Each structure stands twice: as C-alpha cells, then as structure tokens.
TrEMBL record:
Claim: Signal is one of the keywords in the record: no
Binding-site residues for substrate, renumbered to this chain: 67, 74-76, 133, 159
UniProt GO BP: oxidative RNA demethylation
Cofactor requirement: Fe(2+)
Phylogenetic classification of the source organism: Bacteria, Pseudomonadati, Pseudomonadota, Gammaproteobacteria, Oceanospirillales
One Pfam family, short name: 2OG-FeII_Oxy_2
Native source species: Bermanella marisrubri
UniProt xrefs under Gene3D superfamilies: Alpha-ketoglutarate-dependent dioxygenase AlkB-like
The protein, known as: 2OG-Fe(II) oxygenase superfamily protein
Positions annotated to bind Fe cation: 129, 131, 185
Length: 212
C-alpha cells in the first residue's frame, strides 16, 4: 500500500508498561453527536481549581459520577455542581467504546461509571498530572481523542523527568493500565491543522471507574 494514504484500519500499539494505543477504534461522528447531546444538558465550563485558577480545558461529564475540580478539592460527584442535577447518563455510543477496548486488549471486564469530557480550544494544553481520584487503580483509564490531533506525553511515576511523546488523532484511544495506571501524563498545546481548517477543537473523553 502506498504511504500517501493514511490507514483507517484499527491498529493496536503496545507501548509497554501497560500503555496501549488503539488507532481508529472509535466511530467519531456518532461519538461527537453524543458529546453534543451531553453538553446540552451539562454545558462545558472552566472549573475552578483548589489553587484558585480556572482550568484551561473546558469540561463536562456523563455517567453516574463526574470528576470535578472545586475550590475545596478534586473528586467525583453524583451531581453537576452548576445545576445540582445528576450528570447526563452515559450514552451507549460512549459506553461501548470501553467494551471494545476491553475486547481488543483482553483486559478484565469492568464497567466505567464516569466519563470526563474535555474540550481543548486551539492553544490549550494540559499539565502533567496523575489520575488518582478513583477508588481502585486496578481499573484502567481509557482516553479517547476526537477532532484536532494532539501530542500526549507520558512521564512515569514521578512528575519530573523526560516524557515520551505519542501522537493521538481523531478516533484513537489511549489506555493507561497496570504499572502505567498512575503515571504522570499531559497534553502539549493543541495546534490548528492547516489541512483541516474547519477543525477548531480537540475533544477528549476519559472513561473511568470512580467507585470500588
Ligand atoms: O486529553 C487527553 O488526552 C488527556 C486528558 C487527561 O489526562 C485527563 O482528563 O485526566
Ligand atoms: Fe489524566
């Protein structure tokens, strides 16, 4: 096959230590439609961190629980603090991504109860952090990329140090499991793609299990 054509076949990349990437796994149109439905009920907002800063990414959630930042701390909440209502139910289109990942990687079956949705406008990044507000780290983090491409950085068990960089594109899924479940990670500044001037954002979903 010619290199001129980007493949859209599902491809599993084993990056080692429990880091996996599955390219082209997700039906991006259906997933974006599901995100827009969620955002109608629970609009994107820039949450305020305990440090008193607004997050750079705009965020919402669906599922039984949602991850929130508040001046009092980080964690999971059954309700959207903006509305006092429960978060929108996790649409099947989103829930089935996790079943698909589990099947492709032969991971133990589990049921995510939270899906954090991040929106990155052009010029937005995410600093190095661990996903550590969940009750049980045996469950993986399943991270879906949509829209503009990005560079995902994985550092390791400590915040400092040299990162490894992975390019993640529309429809890709990145999995932090096993040893890498608590690795520090972040996202480089999202840039416009000259070949896709109509795209102004990157979206990211993380499917998580928050409760034991
Ligand atoms: O946007 C991404 O690819 C990663 C997002 C992330 O790490 C998070 O929401 O905890
Ligand atoms: Fe994260």
């Amino acid at each position: 096959m010619s290199d001129l054509f980007a493949s859209n076949e599902v491809e599993i990349l084993d990056h080692g230590q429990g880091l996996f990437q599955i390219r082209n796994l997700v039906n991006t149109e259906a997933t974006m439609a599901a995100i827009h439905e969620v955002a109608k009920q629970a609009p994107f907002r820039h949450m305020m961190t305990p440090m008193g800063h607004h997050m750079k990414v705009a965020t919402t959630n669906c599922g039984e629980y949602g991850w929130i930042a508040q001046p009092s701390g980080y964690g999971y909440s059954r309700n959207d603090p903006e509305s006092g209502q429960s978060w929108p139910a996790m649409p099947d289109t989103i829930r089935t991504i996790s079943d698909d990942v589990i099947a492709h990687l032969n991971l133990p079956k589990y049921s995510p109860d939270a899906c954090l949705i991040n929106r990155y406008d052009i010029g937005t990044s995410m600093g190095r952090h661990q996903d550590k507000d969940e009750a049980n780290f045996d469950y993986p983090i399943i991270s879906v990329s949509l829209g503009l491409p990005a560079i995902f950085q994985v550092v390791g068990p400590k915040r400092q140090g040299k990162a490894t960089y992975y390019s993640v594109s529309d429809g890709d899924v990145f999995i932090l499991s096993g040893q890498a479940r608590l690795y520090y990670h972040g996202v480089n500044t999202v840039k416009a793609n000259p070949n896709q001037p109509e795209l102004q954002q990157r979206y990211n979903l993380t499917l998580r299990r928050s409760q034991p």
